[in-house]
């Protein structure tokens, strides 16, 4: 299959949106940008189309997909027993990087969307391209991140093409995404509501809106993998070489690099700007020190870039836990599988 990469330019975009919407309506897949990461979209009511998403990604069929909607009012159409908290969250955070798990209305979505669960994740994304596609197609769009299962989520159209070329008909290229890590997943069917995957909307932001929120550091997100035994879950978002976490301290990183190179290892470094003089074989500057939001936008691109090197080991600098930093650390911990270099 030929993959069309369609760059949005302002002028003539109506045709591009119409083409993309037509593909969706005919059961095809369209990759599109959101404010978090690129999604791989299909008509959420079309079972064959949704099955194609799992095939293109190599995703286990028991890991449910998020359904993207163009207005908050659609919650009523797709969910039942909607708690007041859902409306409050939609009012406060939509469009935005928050996925709400609610009870699905039976018989609306293709069975594969919810992977047999009676709940569904709904999200109204805050990206003009995603919103325009939802509006033009008029469909609820099931869309996981547009990466091959196990790879970091794509934050630009080139990442999507690297994983999906030849497997999907159409990529809407809206440039790099802003936030760079996936939405917060909030389960509103449990009491109190629970964060299943941390993201840019944090527990501290949710509490003033809906009250108590459960947030364990061991958030249960199954990522691209099928839900598995705890302890087996930190095995994705991974580049080919092993990732080790290290504090963003010039002295510590220099020492670690010197020791590793002394053992004959080639070292790639993911660290904030200003860490170019550590002696590492590759350095991918990733945001600024003490500014986790600047790291989140670049993290996945840097993890992917490491796969383009011959590194034997990747050192990745940790970030502050505050704000979106907690979500960044969640992804870094998964990439590293808990491996940390301590001085
Ligand atoms: O930012 C995002 O959320 C991106 C963009 C494209 O919207 N999408 C995304 O989708 O990250 P995906 O499929 O890669 O991650 C969806 C996560 C998975 O961890 C899945 O297990 C969880 O949401 N999820 C989906 N439906 C669920 C449900 N009914 N109950 C519990 N978890 C659910
Ligand atoms: Mg994903």
From TrEMBL:
Its main location: cytoplasm. It is found in: Cytoplasm. Its EC number is 2.7.7.87. It catalyses: L-threonine + hydrogencarbonate + ATP = L-threonylcarbamoyladenylate + diphosphate + H2O. L-threonine binds at residues 36, 68, 123, 143, 183. It is an enzyme of class 2 (transferase). InterPro entries: DHBP_synth_RibB-like_a/b_dom (IPR017945), Sua5-like_dom (IPR006070), Sua5/YwlC_C (IPR038385), Sua5_C (IPR005145), T(6)A37_SUA5 (IPR010923), TC-AMP_synthase_SUA5 (IPR050156). Keywords: ATP-binding, Cytoplasm, Nucleotide-binding, Nucleotidyltransferase, Transferase, tRNA processing. Required for the formation of a threonylcarbamoyl group on adenosine at position 37 (t(6)A37) in tRNAs that read codons beginning with adenine. This is Threonylcarbamoyl-AMP synthase.
């Amino acid at each position: 299959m030929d993959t069309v990469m369609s760059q949005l330019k302002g002028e003539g975009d109506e045709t591009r949106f119409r083409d993309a919407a037509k593909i969706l309506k005919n059961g095809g897949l369209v990759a599109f940008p959101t404010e978090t990461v690129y999604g791989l979209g299909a008509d959420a009511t079309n079972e064959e189309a949704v099955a194609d998403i799992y095939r293109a990604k190599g995703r286990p069929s028991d890991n449910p997909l998020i359904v993207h909607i163009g207005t908050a009012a659609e919650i009523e159409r797709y969910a039942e027993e909607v708690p007041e908290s859902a409306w409050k969250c939609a009012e406060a955070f939509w469009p935005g990087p928050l996925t709400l798990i609610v009870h699905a209305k039976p018989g609306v979505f293709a069975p594969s969307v919810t992977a047999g669960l009676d709940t569904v994740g709904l999200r109204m994304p805050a990206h003009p391209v995603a919103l325009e596609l939802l509006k033009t197609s008029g469909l609820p769009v099931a869309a996981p991140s547009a990466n091959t299962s196990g790879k970091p989520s794509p934050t630009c159209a080139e990442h999507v093409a690297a994983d999906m070329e030849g497997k999907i008909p159409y990529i809407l290229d809206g440039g790099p995404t802003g936030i760079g890590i996936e939405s917060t997943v909030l389960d509103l069917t449990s009491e109190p509501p629970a964060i299943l995957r941390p993201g840019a909307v944090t527990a501290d932001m949710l509490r003033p809106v809906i009250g108590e929120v459960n947030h364990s550091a061991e958030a249960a997100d199954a990522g691209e993998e099928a839900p598995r035994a705890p302890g087996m879950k930190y095995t994705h978002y991974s580049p080919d070489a092993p990732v080790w976490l290290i504090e963003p301290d010039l002295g510590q990183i220099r020492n670690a690099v010197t020791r590793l190179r002394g053992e004959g290892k080639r070292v790639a470094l993911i660290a904030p700007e200003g860490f170019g003089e550590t002696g590492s074989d590759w350095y991918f500057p990733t945001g600024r020190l003490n500014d986790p939001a600047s790291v989140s936008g670049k993290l996945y691109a840097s993890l992917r870039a490491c796969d383009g090197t011959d590194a034997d080991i990747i050192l990745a600098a940790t970030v502050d836990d505050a704000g979106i930093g907690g979500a960044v650390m969640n992804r870094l911990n998964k990439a590293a599988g808990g491996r940390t270099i301590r001085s």
